[in-house]
Amino acid sequence: MRYISTRGKAPVLNFEEVVLTGLARDGGLYLPESWPQFSHDDIQSLAGMRYAEAAAFLLQPFLGDSIEAADFHAMTEKAYTAFSHEAVVPIRQMGANDFLMELYHGPTLAFKDVALQLLGLLYDHLLARQGKRVTIIGATSGDTGSAAIEACRGREAVDIFILHPKGRVSEVQRRQMTTVLDANVHNIAVEGDFDDCQAMVKAMFNDHDFRDSLAVSAVNSINWARVMAQIVYYFTAAVSLGGPARPVSFSVPSGNFGDVYAGYAASRMGLPVEQLIVATNRNDILSRFFNSGEYRKAGVDPTISPSMDIQVSSNFERYLADLYGRDGAAVSELMARLDSDGGFVIDRLRLNDSLFAAGKCGEAETIETIRRTFEETGTLVDPHTAVGLFAGQNCRKDSHIPLVTLSTAHPAKFPDAVEKATGERPALPKHMSDLFAREERFAQLPNDIETVKSYIRERARILAPH
Ligand SMILES: *Cc1c(COP(=O)(O)O)cnc(C)c1O
Question: Which of 26, 148, 302, 406 can bridge 9 by disulfide, Cβ–Cβ 3.0-4.6 Å?
């Protein structure tokens, strides 16, 4: 499999290079040149497989000859043993045709573990083989950081620097990052918001000297391997609910558009998907886009679903590339207009696609959905999941088609909102019950790219004399 940049001007790479590179050198994101195809028989054959086997089977075509099939299968087996539920991503029935897919049984209690546990092993494998090291730099609005740190802690070939917006992630989220004291883990609290953090990471990637001298790599959802790993659970969920014979719909709490883009990829690979519902909180650039064709920045308002508090969605560019038939020049022009004019409008004809629907859920609606879900089903859901449930009910076209809402975080990760809504304070799972007693370590830096760069330069071991 070959990978091309959404902007068409970066070198074409193989899987190994794409995993270690992250953002393309022309500022774009890498995409597989074509979508591997799975027949209904292929999809049917997933029915007897465990999750790790299904992952190895579905993802093999993306690897090309970068990784031996047996090695990759060993990686998927290992990655998902870190999950506390035997089914890895169990499905819970909530109503006649309503289901929750619990993606939060990994080490940091959010769905990002599903991809990052695998990515950590991919790094290990590929770097050890090449005798190389990397410096991973990422920005987090809360969950990516801890999941990336958990996946990379203690790994000899990796130094990891995670920027988070100071005071804008929950205390559980912060502590899940800052209490990891391994020497290769560096947490930076930036005096700014998530978009400031993300913009700094992008700028560091676009500084080729900096990037090359530190062998910088990304674990944000701009890394292709993350999107790839998330494709698997759309297939396994659909098959467990009667797919591929019966189509299934998904409602996906969305921020950077990585998770729902993986659902789109699954549909392009042959999975019958009726609807993909893009669920946003009041930071709603995505739902505005799918309802109007206009993609335009607005400010970022902090919400009780902070992992979706974004101004622009980095993976959206991948979808744009497909909308424009992989025309790199057209994508570059739109992205330039996003920078210069704050937005752009897509030709209505291009959007004539009934796969996507989108809805927004405000703060009061989020609380009300948590309350009502608890009252009606006895299930505690976190605020991100509630956004998905709310938008899912508002946007589904056909209540006879099973709707799977992705439950992206454990309720105990956002206990204040859950308690406010239900009166119940969800408990952390046992292995984390001492989180509030653990020692924290992090640096606090101004929202200034040069300061952050020097901080990283001084600490990345890549430059240390041998
Ligand atoms: C990251 C995250 C999301 C948003 O996922 P995207 O891939 O960025 O759209 C939703 N919910 C939770 C809990 C998250 O951590």
Answer: 26
